[in-house]
Amino acid sequence: MTTRHDRPSGPRSAPPGAGRGRPGGFRPSDRSGDRRGGPGGPRGGPDDPVVLYGWHPVVQALGNSGRRLHRLLATENGAARLAEALGTLPIVPEIVRPNAINALLGPDAVHQGLYLEVDPLPAPGLDALPEDALLLALDQITDPHNVGAIVRTAAAFGVAGIVTTLRHSPSATGVLAKSASGGLEHVPLITVRNLAEALIELGERGFTRIGLDSEAETELDAVGPRRPAVVVLGAEGKGLRQRTRECCDVLARIAFTGEIRSLNVSNAAAITLYALSRPAQS
Length: 282
Prior knowledge:
Keywords: Methyltransferase, Transferase
Protein name: RNA 2-O ribose methyltransferase substrate binding domain-containing protein
Helix content: 25-40%
CATH superfamily of the largest domain: SPOUT methyltransferase, trefoil knot domain
Number of helices: 9
CATH architecture of the largest domain: 3-Layer(aba) Sandwich
Number of domains: 2
CATH class of the largest domain: Alpha Beta
GO molecular function, one term: RNA binding
Structural class: alpha/beta
Oligomer: single chain
Organism: Methylobacterium oxalidis
Distance between the termini: 52 Å
Order of helices and strands: EHEHEHEEHEHEHEEHEHEH
C-alpha cells in the first residue's frame, strides 16, 4: 500500500519538465475505473476511457504516440520520476496526494503515485494481420490478472495480436493493464463476437490453429514452429470449449516431467510461445 503523506492537501507545483497541476487542485473524474465496478470490474463499452495506473503501464502509454491521453494524476514523487525518465511530458499532470488516487482505485491498488485516463487503442481486423503473424486466442479467460500476464508475455515474444471476445473477457483497463506491465501498448487486443467464427476465418487465411489441451495426445514439441499460427488458450479448470476444440487443426499438450501436470494459464502461454518461437532443429 502506498504510504500516505502528512502534508496538507491541495494543488502543488510539478517538478521541472512535468508541468503544473490544474487550478483548483484535484477533482474526481466521472470517467474513473469505479464507473465499471472498479479497475478490474465488468467490461465497459468499447469507447469507454481506459484507466492505467502504476509505473510501467503509465510510462509505456505516455511514450506511445498512438494513445489519446485525457488525464494524468501524479504524486510529487511520481511526477518527478516521470520527468526524469521522459523529460517533457505529453500531458500536464495534476499533482495530488496518494489518497486521491486511492479514492479512485481502492486502497489495495499498487499505483506508485500514477493514474492515467486514455482512449482505447485501435485494433487491426483479422484480415489486416501480417501473413506470418503469431497470435493468441483466449477462450473465456476472465481473470484480469491472468489476461494481463498473458499480454505481457505476448509482448515479450512479438505476438501480433490477442483475439478475445466481447463477452466473458475482462476489459483492457485497471488490473489487467497493471498486470500487463505496459504490454497493452505493444500487443493489440482484437475483440470478436464469436471465437469459433474467428478461428474459422483465420484457418481460411492459412493460420495453423493450435489448441492447448493437457489431455491431448500430441506433445507441443512435435508441433514445431508454425507461421502463420494462432495458439488457443482455454480457461483454467474448464479448458477449451467443445466448439473451440473443433475449430483447431491440432491439440497439443506441454510435456511435464514432474508430479504436477498443470500450470497457470499465463505460465502455460509463456512456455507455448517459447516452444513455437524456437528455430527448427537441423
